[in-house]
Amino acid sequence: MPYKVTFWGTRGSIPTPGPHTTRYGGNTACVAVTGGPDQLVILDAGSGIRPLGRELMQASAMPMHLDILLSHTHWDHIQGLPFFQPLSTPGNSVRIFGAPQSGIPLEEILDRQMDPIVFPVPLKALAADLAITEVDGGAFEVHGFRVEAFRLRHPGTTLGFKLVPVGGGRTMAYLTDNELGPGGSYPVPDNWRDQLVGFLGGVDTLIHDGMYSEAMIEARAGWGHSTPQQAIDLAVDAGCRHLVLFHHEPEHDDRVLDDLMSEARTYASDRSSRLTVDAAIEGMSLTL
Ligand SMILES: [Zn+2]
Ligand SMILES: [Zn+2]
């Protein structure tokens, strides 16, 4: 059965509203994966999850059953959660999956984001039924998908997710905040890239961090992100059909992103005739 992937937030690090980002979008990371009835998986809870929540409240039957997969708990991946209306609605059930950080449980991290010294409503006051499950790699099931998690090269424990539809169909992977270049030192095995290519093998659509331009990457080595060309190399090696570049640098306005995309498409067409490369655009939907 086909499913739909919608980009509600495409930006990295911090929201960038304004006239210079109207086309690619200013909300931080959030992608919704929707299939049949009662099937909604949300990838990350950046500021894009707020408008998603508003639409769900208007368009969905109540109560809702939602799954949220968190790549990690940097601000730009959790900052929308306190403003996600379905969490404030009695009867809804929300399951959150993600990794603990430095021995601190995931629930405590989400709780701290809503501490009274920085936010007026505590996590425990939200009315929906909230279940938090810690995952640190491996496989688990959510509504309609088998999920496989893979440890990425990024500060903290950061997970990439592969979604395999339970009833068969095209697979997708969501790998944001991932350093494919040699910079940084992360607790991953020496053959990490080979393992990653194996993990992705056969994935139809890959959403991947393409934050830095080729001109920036040397100065940002070790910051945990990649360039479009590095993401294209990975997509080609893993045999993907479609690469969507994600987690746009906040200093890149629409015109800079147009230029980077044009360079990326030229590079991709030199590398492979079957790979399509796009930039994530807020509001864009794909059908898989
Ligand atoms: Zn990020
Ligand atoms: Zn991050």
Q: What percentage of amino acids are in beta strands?
A: 25-35%
Mass-distribution shape:
globular
Evaluate the radius of gyration.
18 Å
Strand-pairing-aware structural class: alpha/beta
Terminal-residue CA separation: 9 Å
**SSE string, helix = H, strand = E?**
EEEHEHEHEEEEEHEHEHEE
Number of strands: 14
> What number is the mean pLDDT?
96
Strand order of the largest sheet: 6-5-4-3-2-1-14
Contiguous runs where pLDDT drops below 50 for at least 5 residues: none
The biggest beta sheet is recorded as: 7 strands, mixed
Based on the structure, what is the oligomeric state of the protein chains? single chain
User: Helical segment tally?
Assistant: 6
Task: Characterise the protein shown here.
With 288 residues, this protein is α/β, with parallel strands linked by helices. The protein is built from 6 helices and 14 strands. A 7-stranded mixed sheet has the order 6-5-4-3-2-1-14. Strands 7-8-9-10-11-12-13 form a 7-stranded mixed sheet, covered by helices on one side. α5 (228-237) packs parallel to α6. The termini are close together. The mean pLDDT is 96. Bound molecules: zinc ion (2 copies).
Topology:
Elements: E1 4-9, E2 30-34, E3 40-43, H1 49-59, E4 65-69, H2 75-78, E5 93-98, H3 106-113, E6 129-134, E7 138-142, E8 145-151, E9 159-165, E10 172-175, H4 192-200, E11 205-209, H5 228-237, E12 242-246, H6 254-271, E13 276-279, E14 285-287
Parallel strand pairs: 3-4, 4-5, 5-6, 10-11, 11-12, 12-13
Antiparallel strand pairs: 1-2, 1-14, 2-3, 7-8, 8-9, 9-10
Helix pairs in contact: 5-6
